[in-house]
Write a structure and sequence with these properties.
Blueprint (H helix, E strand, L loop, with lengths): L5 E5 L2 E8 L2 E5 H9 L4 H16 L8 E6 L5 E8 H8 L7 H20 L2 H13 L4 H23 L5 H16 L3 H8 L12 H21 L3 H27 L14 H6 L7 E11 L2 E10 L1
Antiparallel strand pairs: 1-2, 2-3, 3-5, 4-5, 6-7
Helix pairs in contact: 1-2, 3-4, 5-6, 6-9, 7-9, 7-10, 9-10
Length: 306
Amino acid sequence: MDNSTRIAIFKGKEVRKIIFNNEWWFSVVDVVEALTDSAKPSVYWSAMKARVNNEDEIQLSTICKQLKLESSDGKKYETDCASTEGIFRIIQSIPSPKAEPFKRWLARVGYERVQEIEDPELAMKRMRMLYKAKGYSDGWIEKRSRGMAIREDLTDEWQKRGIAEQRDYAILTAEISKAAFDMTPSQYKKFKGLDRENLRDHMNELELIFSMLGEASTSEIAKNKDAQGFDHNKQAAVAGGSVAGNARRDLEKKSGKRVSTKNNYLNQPQDKKLLGGKNDGWKTVIDFTKIKKGGVVVDDVIKKIK
């Protein structure tokens, strides 16, 4: 089961989701924030549960499960989550003009999981399309995709070798990053001026390459050394990260330029940022109107709007 936290976007608002029992479950507080624009969605959710229980004698918490979702600090916490069906019930109690478009959005996002189970390539296709819509170049998307595959291979290897706690995964990842870039992921995010954003979505192609090298090297060393348990895998993580770190320093010495950069893609699309182009006032978005051929969805439309 893929238990990593994913992000879905509804009208510019992030909604965390996770696979549980082979379907998407969504963060309730994120849904509340998306629909109400509340500055304190967790407080709104608590008050809402009490109100619905008092008025309708319904315990909304009974349709939720506490699942571990990644928070803005990079750590995972038990969070109220609900399935697509559960979220439909919850938003009935939220007076918001966004409720109807959110229902349509939710139905589509939930159905995507069914499609992806039947055809796993769709998940990769949608991922590429979303990055393309954000303005990332084809070369960057290819490296980001490859990096995801290498990361998954590494975490699978760790799992086989006795690493079970999320805290241990975070520590091992930090060791690789520290050896590769002289910065832990949290330090790297601070270096780039990021908050809850995904660090690797704000790396340039070289940064992604050295991230891949560190993780691929760690996986190879762990296998060849038959690392077992946390301590041995930590040694492999330091060694693997050092492979990338030594290569990075060698490149920096010969090129005269640092690999790590403070540049991020918060304010401009990735292609504009790298090329130094001017923002022409257009932005790329996804029109989720489906193109159908023979009753089968074959593509999503990407268009540009002012």
